[in-house]
Amino acid sequence: xxxxxxxxxxxxxxxxxxxxxxLEETAEELGLTEYGSVRDGYxxxxxLGDLVRDTIKTIVSPALxxxxxxxxxxxxxxxxxxxxxxxxxxxFDGAALAGAAAILLLLSAGxxxxxxxxxxxxxxxxxxxxxxxxxxGSAALLSGQVTAAAAKYxxxxxxxxxxxxxxxxxxxxxxxxxxxxxxxxxxxxxxVMSGVLGFLKWCGGAVxxxxxxxxxxxxxxxxxxxNAADAAIVRSAKxxxxxxxxxxxxxxxxxxxxxxxxxxxxxxSVGSFGLLAVASVILAPFIQTGxxxxxxxxxxxxxxxxxxxxxxxxxxxxxxxxxxxxGCIGSCGLMLYFSVYALxxxxxx
Amino acid sequence: MELxxxxxxxxxxxSLLGLAVGxxxxxxxxxxxxxxxxxxxxxxxxxxxxxxxxxxRAGERAGLTSALTIPVxxxxxxxxxGRFSADLCRDAGQALAAHAVELACACAVxxxxxxxxxxxxxxxxxxx
Lengths: 349, 128
Description:
- By secondary structure, chain A is mainly alpha-helical.
- Helices cover 86% and strands 1% of the residues of chain A.
- The longest helix of chain B is centred in the middle third of the chain and has 37 residues.
- Chain B has two domains: 64 residues; 64 residues.
- At the A-B interface, α4, α5 and α7 of A face α2, α3 and α4 of B.
């Protein structure tokens, strides 16, 4: 009868001990407090509904309208003049170059450009991971995942750190280099930089894929090995306590069970906070970049049809760089999701 | 539409007159053709003023800065002017002058686009 009360009290103390207060601050920064708290759990459905609604509202942002108008105006003007002048070089190529420069500046400069957006998202994800993973790791540790929690936490922290650092110090500069090479290609005309551009794109994709593959493999292997070991340890410890101490043994066993139950509740609560936090951080930038990517692909196809091949190629290159940006945001978000999910999985008693 | 009728009438009349006087006085036929072409070009460009104003308004409404739109519009206008002038020179049998005009036009387009290229280079330097 006393077990639920004791579990609740234990839960409060445990939450304090593992640093749930710091997590509450992060939740406040992300605007999650109106959907619950780390201690009491979150209204997942309500939050996801509101998040999707807000994201849909912000899809047609002023930046998207500006970029789209700029690209469309330039492409149609160049195509119109090209139609009047016919297949010609000289001064028209200079005008096409000015158009290409304007499009590139429009899409890649400024604080609301896609690379700046992706960098901000990755940094925010790193902050969430820094606040979330230690608390989730401690909760998993207290709920009996002694081996698994340590292995999963260290893997998640290490891989996430490496991935976010690589995204900021390698992939993002690579994307900018890719854009610079695309500008050079637009200036020179033809497909003179296609080899370099292909290599840069391959480099970015390969780095992200290798890290994701390594992380999922490591996580799968450690989960298989350590979950079973932890379950055996917890079960044998409980049996030993109950049998070795004739009268007090069962009480001690119940107390241990209530602590394990409280830790499991906190772990689930912190885990659901983690899933919501990741969703709130990545959903809007991911969808905004994805929509820009699709629109640019479409305009590139229209431009190719309007016999403005130089513009079509440039827009195709920019959309490819957006695909890499999407890869960055997506892989960081997925890795944090996998980490949270792995740490949330309970020991089978 | 009205402008198109006027331009077409002017062009056809100038061509017929050119044919009539061309056999005896070639220089006058050439001058006549050039004058008609210049009038048609000026009329066409004047009609583009409204389009240009519309484009500017659309750009401003969408939040595009004039630093991006003006060089593109100017360079396109220069490309049209350069092509027209070079064709006039070619009609007069002055291929060298035509090339010179095209060269001058390419230089002018480059000068107009310089702020854009400068910003692009600045962006690349900022990345580094």
